[in-house]
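Narrative summary of target 7.
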Amino acid sequence: MKMHGLGNDFVVIDERDGIVRATQPVVMAMADRHRGIGFDQLAVISNSPDGDAHLTFWNSDGSHSATCGNATRCIARYLMQEKGVTEVTVTTERGAHLARDLDGTITVNMGHPSLEWQDIPLAREMDTLKLPLPGQPVATGMGNPHCTFFVDDAEAIELETEGPRFEHDPLFPQRTNVQFASIIGENHIRMRVWERGAGVTLASGSSSCATAVAARRRGLVNGQVTMDLDGGQIMIDWRDDGIWMSGPTAHVFDGVWRP
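Modeled conformation, tokenized:
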């Protein structure tokens, strides 16, 4: 299945009835937007003893990702429609995530953020609220590392230059997602993202969560946050039980993979 959440697009393979050999070369070939299908991430659905399904994620460069928020919402909707329910639990490398259908808008609990340097992880002990990098960005872990810069105008940032520069900084032993965000109103953020292993994307769920957390820690927002991304708008609500992310999902087409 091809799906997307705000233009953040995925190929989703359902292997609950069989085994899929999603090797790195195959993932990279499918990710090619000219010679394959094209996607930011690939997600594989498998059976889970602790939920309605288990999700495994690959980036378009063939690397693994522990989490993918928008793909989780898209697949949760698929599972709800399949089962005729309005609530499912999916598991990932990061743990269990409860998802709900709120009148067509899919919301998922992405869990609690990691705020300590060793959990993100960073290369050495430091203040995660002000990293020793130009612009003093904020580091956050959402199952994958995030580096958030607060700037006057996110639109003016050259993502293709600045993104890879910080993705591969030695401070991040597992590389990092990079966000550039501007406060444009009360609890309202404009954010653009460079994703580790995928490059510039129209949206990123985990990056949206990390940016909202960073803004709250900096005292720039309070309460539910509206995020304006290149692909559309998403809502982030950091509550006592975790970070809830809500937004639209889309199913584009079905296909058959012939090994």
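The chain is about 15% helix and 40% strand.
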